[in-house]
C-alpha cells in the first residue's frame, strides 16, 4: 500500500510541477506578445500597426501601450501586475515618478487581490510602491509602507536574505528622509553588519550601506567619521564599479 501511495504522490507532484511550468511559460509568452505588439511595435512606420516612427522614444512607446494594459489580460491579473511592475520600473528610470507610482499602485492592488497581503510578490509590489513614493518626495508614505511590509517579508524569506536586507536599507533611507537621522543610523548599522556577514566585505551592497551610514553620520554632525567612511567608499567604488559609474 505504501508503494502505491508513494507512486500516486510522486505522480501528483510531477503533474503539479508540469502545470506550474506550463503556467510560467504561458505568462512569459503573454508578456512577450504584449511587448512585441504594443511596445516594440511603436518603432514601426508612423500609422502602421501601432507604429509611431523610427525616432520614437521609450517614454512615448510606453505611454502608447498603457491603454491596452488593463484590457489585455482580463483573466490573468498576475500577468497584468507583472507587466505594470515592469512598465513602472521603466518610468522610474526615465525620471517620471508619477507615472511609475501609478503603475506600482495598480500592480499592488492586483497582487493583493489575487494573492493576499502577505504573499511575497505582494510585498515586493509594496516595496516598489514605496520607491515611487520616495521619488515623489513622500518619505512618510514610503516609510509607512516599508514598516508594514518588512516584518512579513522577513518571516517569508528569513532575516538574512539579501532582499530583506535591501528592504531594511530602503527603510533606513526613508527614516532619514523623515528627519530621524539617529534612528536611520541605527538601522543602517544593523543592515551593514548583516550584509557584511551574509555577503562578505567586498560586496557592492556592503559599500552602499557604508555610504548610507556616512550620510546619517553627517546629518548627526559626526563629520570626521562621515568623511573617513566616504573616502573609503569612494576608493571601493572606483575599484569595483569604475571611475565613470554614476554611483562613483
Architecture overview:
This protein has 248 residues and is mostly helical. The protein has helices spanning 2-39, 58-72, 77-93, 97-115, 120-135, 139-157, 162-177, 181-199, 204-219, 223-240. Helix 3 (77-93) packs antiparallel against helix 4 (97-115), helix 7 runs antiparallel to helix 8 and helix 8 runs antiparallel to helix 9 (204-219). The longest helix is centred in the first third of the chain and has 38 residues, at 2-39. The radius of gyration is 22 Å and the shape is globular. The N and C termini lie far apart (65 Å).
Task: Looking at this protein, list some descriptive labels.
248 residues, mainly alpha, globular
- Would you count the extended β strands for me? 0
Q: What general form does the structure show? A: globular
Query: Span from first to last CA?
Result: 65 Å
Give me the secondary-structure category. Answer: mainly alpha
- Helix fraction bin: over 70%
From the alpha carbons, calculate the radius of gyration and give it in angstroms. Answer: 22 Å
> What percentage of the residues does DSSP assign to strands (E)?
under 5%
Uncertain segments: none
Elements, N to C (H/E): HHHHHHHHHH
For the largest beta-sheet, the strand count, sense and barrel status come to: none
Mean pLDDT: 88
Summed up, the helix count is 10
